[in-house]
Design a protein that fits this description.
Keywords: Membrane, Transmembrane, Transmembrane helix. The protein has a 6-stranded antiparallel beta sheet, covered by helices on one side. It starts with a helix and ends with a strand. Helices cover 39% and strands 38% of the residues. Strand 1 and strand 2 form a beta hairpin. The chain has 141 residues and is of the alpha+beta class.
Length: 141
């Protein structure tokens, strides 16, 4: 056997093992995470006056993401106060920080965790009362 065949066989075995790992180990965990995160979202009370304007789900063997974008006529303080209380009622733990992002630090994010799951509430423009915000749930291996 020459070296090229050995390398090709090693690569082939690695690829097969990686595929098997995805389907037999990660996929069941991913499926459970997807169902759990959907359930977590449906158990949340949404801030009164909010209108769902976009929803996106990504479900892969190695990661699950659920994104919900809302429009609302509320300030960031009203949004964050509501969700800090709502997340606590639903067993989510806040990391204790308010992260700033965007041009002029005009955006804010609250991050929560529950077991292996993460959830964030983000608002991109805190200067107005005509705001949008999102709820982003995720799991990754």
């Amino acid at each position: 056997m020459n070296i090229a065949k050995i390398i090709r066989n090693i690569i082939y075995v690695f690829l097969v093992l990686n595929i098997l790992n995805s389907f037999f180990f990660l996929a069941p965990r991913s499926n459970k995470a997807y169902k759990d995160l959907q359930q977590e979202y449906h158990e949340l009370n949404i801030l009164p006056g909010s209108t769902l304007i976009h929803q996106e789900d990504v479900h892969k063997p190695e990661a699950v993401y659920l994104l919900y974008d809302f429009a609302v006529n509320k300030s960031w303080d009203e949004i964050s106060d509501f969700y800090l209380k709502e997340m606590e009622k639903n067993g989510w733990k806040w990391d204790g920080k308010v992260e700033k992002f965007g041009k002029d630090d005009n955006g804010r994010t609250l991050r929560f965790y529950k077991g292996n799951y993460k959830l964030s509430i983000g608002c991109s423009n805190i200067q107005t009362n005509d705001s949008s915000y999102n709820i982003f749930l995720r799991w990754a291996r």
